[in-house]
Specification:
Blueprint: H1 2-31, E1 37-41, H2 48-64, E2 68-72, H3 79-86, E3 94-99, H4 101-108, E4 123-132, E5 134-138, H5 147-155, E6 161-164, H6 170-182, E7 187-190, H7 194-203, E8 208-212, H8 217-221, E9 226-230, E10 257-264, H9 269-283, H10 286-294, E11 298-299, H11 304-325
Parallel strand pairs: 1-2, 1-3, 6-7, 6-8
Antiparallel strand pairs: 3-10, 4-10, 4-11, 5-8, 5-9
Helix pairs in contact: 2-9, 4-11, 6-11
């Protein structure tokens, strides 16, 4: 009898504790946010990723009535900051804003266990905020006006080079993929960021460059750079007259750039939903759409699952390309 009574009391206490914990969690999620939110950017200040993150942070702060602070944690191709967020408390107060090298960095870099992170299972996707088409531009002195023209020149014995913002970047992967499919060797010249690569292709120190639209739009308009192709599967609204690499006959060569928000794994679903809802509303703002266009970016939005699927697809597709081509970061 005493044993049965003891079991009943134990079960009752457990039930009360479970109910109390659940109520506390619900109350926490319902009250969120009650303090400043930190958005980690795994790259230095001044670049596109940092600027776009600050745009979203400002708008999010206004809507949530709490400070949203950018914390730049550059290093190891973005892995340093990504790893930091992956290990942060899953309470919604530490978020990651990142471009798509988030997915490929562990595939192209030799990361130590302490610097690594789980691309597919270590984070909660919040929202895919924007896409940035990659464009191949050439200095007019290179004498090429299209991808077929470029390939023909190289096969005819003319040496050409292409710049990228770094070894292992999506631009590097795209350049080497095109090299393989076209059966040519256009020499890769890696830089530390998009800015220096644009400076050198405009100056003629390198013949061509794979970049995002934002930094080269003015040079294209001035005739100082010639747009040759887009890396996306379809033409971009930002430059509808520029053909895709697929249109040049290399239908499988498709690489784009995207960015989005992630949270540490285990972040409450209510918090993820709230952030997703607010950011979707922000992406509808004409002011934000116009500002994104200056960075060569187009808004996306949608459910968290869209970012999750994009991340998983890139990990599989780009992973195979990276292994096949032997692409590695410095």
């Amino acid at each position: 009898m005493k044993s049965a009574r003891r079991l009943f009391v134990t079960a009752a206490i457990a039930g009360v504790l479970t109910s109390t914990l659940g109520a506390a969690q619900a109350q926490t999620a319902g009250a969120y946010p009650t303090k400043p939110i930190t958005v980690v950017v795994s790259y230095p200040p001044g670049g596109d990723t940092d600027a776009i993150a600050r745009l979203f942070a400002d708008k999010l702060s206004q809507r949530l009535k709490q400070p949203v602070v950018i914390d730049n944690k550059p290093g190891a191709g973005g892995a340093l900051g990504n790893n930091f967020v992956g290990r942060a408390p899953a309470d919604g107060y530490t978020l990651l804003f990142t471009p798509n090298p988030f997915t490929t960095a562990p595939l192209v870099m030799k990361l130590s266990p302490s610097a690594g992170y789980d691309v597919l299972h270590g984070f909660e996707p919040i929202i895919k905020t924007a896409v940035q088409p990659l464009v191949l531009v050439a200095n007019p002195a290179a004498g090429v006006k299209s991808v077929p023209d470029m390939i023909k020149s190289v096969k005819g014995g003319k040496p050409l080079s292409y710049a990228s913002p770094g070894a292992g970047s999506p631009m590097h992967i795209l350049g080497e993929w095109l090299n393989r499919e076209a059966g040519v060797k256009i020499t890769h010249v890696p830089y530390r960021g998009v800015g220096p690569s644009v400076t050198d292709v405009v100056a003629g120190h390198v013949d061509t460059a794979w970049v995002t639209f934002g930094p080269v739009t003015q040079y294209i308009q001035q005739g100082r750079l010639v747009p040759l192709a887009i890396g996306d599967a379809q033409r971009s609204k930002l430059a509808p007259n520029v053909p895709t690499v697929a249109e040049a006959g290399y239908k499988d060569v498709v690489v784009g750039a995207w960015n989005g928000f992630f949270a540490p794994k285990g972040t409450p679903a209510e918090v993820v939903k709230l952030l997703n809802t607010q950011l979707n509303e922000i992406l509808k703002s004409p002011e934000v759409v116009e500002k994104l266009a200056t960075f060569g970016a187009l808004p996306v939005g949608g459910a968290p699952e869209l970012l999750g699927k994009t991340n998983a697809s890139d990990y599989e597709v780009m992973g195979k390309v990276i292994r096949d081509l032997g692409v590695q970061a410095d």
